[in-house]
Amino acid sequence: MRKSFSSLREAAERIEVAAADGAVLPLYALNGPDDAPGLMVGHANGFAAGSYGPWLHVLSRWFRVFAFDARGHGGSSWPEGSLADVFSIDRFADDLARVAAQAHERLNGAPLHFAGHSLSAATAVRLALDGGALPFDVAILFEPPIFPPPDSPHYTEASLQQEKLVRGSLRRERQWKNPAALETYLRSRGVFRTFEAELLRAHCEACLRPEGNHYVLCCPPEVESFIFMSHRDADIWSRLGTIRARFHLVSGDPTAPERDWVTGAAASIAQGMHAVSLEVLRDAGHMMIFQQTQRCIQIVRRRTGT
């Protein structure tokens, strides 16, 4: 187990949630109005709760916000074992149910909503398969990466892009002088060029932990890479019709020049579910929360009626 680290250091409270296999997940609670509903926020692969810090603090004007570091990320710790066992989609789904239970204990009967991005959005979908109940009143999913089967028209695009992610994440530099050095590096690279400055800085501070006289990635490259690969191998698409929970899906713009494969497949994912709405966020990509923060806040407020 690793030395304690909090990716969201401004939280009012840190609760350590034990997983079934001994992993420990930090759950962060932010101060909000006493009579407000709860909002659980889940992060993307390779990110952490603190990556969304500025977004979470704005949302805390209307919600009692909870966010957590998924296993393999941020300040979490996890047991030794094969990647396939420790980081299976079923482990993530069980973890989500456990952190939601802890949030419910602190809400005293008030509703708990969910806003999940990428990895955590797919985790909520996994939790709802085969008629599974969700521990949330309203569940908003920002582009869950539900990988299409070989007979899907989205398969070729998804395979090429996902393979690039698998290889690229393995090549990530583990060690950095400090978060500012990582920020300088990312500011001119790929999708990070489109991040709002405050959120890029928060992400760099949340995904690096101090170790001696330097910093290391909280999410090891081999873990991030395996999770990308596990999205590709998970059999979720064929079981979307078994979902009875209602989701609100939010997609980026399929006409954007640098669209992600998930953006292209979003309409088909929504069509595979019985009870789902789909909202397209124009001029946005897969990292929409970091690109169009205010518009994503408006979606959460509108969908939850706050």
Describe, in plain words, how this protein is organized in 3D.
The chain has 306 residues and is an alpha/beta fold. Helices cover 37% and strands 17% of the residues. It has one domain: Alpha/Beta hydrolase fold, catalytic domain (Rossmann fold, 3-Layer(aba) Sandwich), CATH 3.40.50.1820. The chain contains eleven helices and eleven strands. It has an eight-stranded mixed sheet, with helices on both faces. The longest helix has 19 residues, at 89-107. The chain starts with 12 loop residues before the first strand and ends with a helix. The relative contact order is 0.16.
Per CATH, which architecture?
3-Layer(aba) Sandwich
Number of domains: 1
CATH superfamily: Alpha/Beta hydrolase fold, catalytic domain
Biggest sheet character: 8 strands, mixed
**Number of discrete helical segments:** 11
* Helix share, percent: 25-40%
How are the strands of the biggest sheet laid out side by side? 1-2-4-3-5-6-10-11
The ordered H/E elements are: EEEHEHHEHEHEHHEEHEHEHH
**How much beta, percentage-wise?**
15-25%
- Beta strand count: 11
* CA-based shape: globular
Mean pLDDT: 95
